[in-house]
Amino acid sequence: MVLASGGYPLLNAMWTMFIFFGWIIWIWLLFTVFSDLFRRNDVSGWGKAGWVFFMLVLPFVGVLVYLVGQGSAMGERQSERQQAAVRRYETAQHNGSNGQSASEITKAKVLLDSGTITTDEFETLKAKALAS
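User: That's the sequence. What structure does it adopt?
Assistant: Structure tokens below.
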């Protein structure tokens, strides 16, 4: 039985968890660095190949050198990508039907049903709402 064996089984389990989560963090860090490297437009293909070679031959040194040299720029590039994504989303929401057109048409229909406006006026309001 493992629990009855001598030694420190709890410390062994904690060390195993430490190593496991360390590898998870390392893999996440590699994905982050490589994704930043390959999204950059200011580095040529040979430059990217050089960085990849450096990070494959000396992984810890290569990643640390990249992070020290490009750490703040990585954050700025990530922030710019997020802001661009937000702008694209907002533009898509503004250009698409965001419910405002339907609300205006519903209000115009209520006015038409109550006899406040004519059918021609309703069609004009409906066309304006759909155009915006």
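The radius of gyration is 30 Å.
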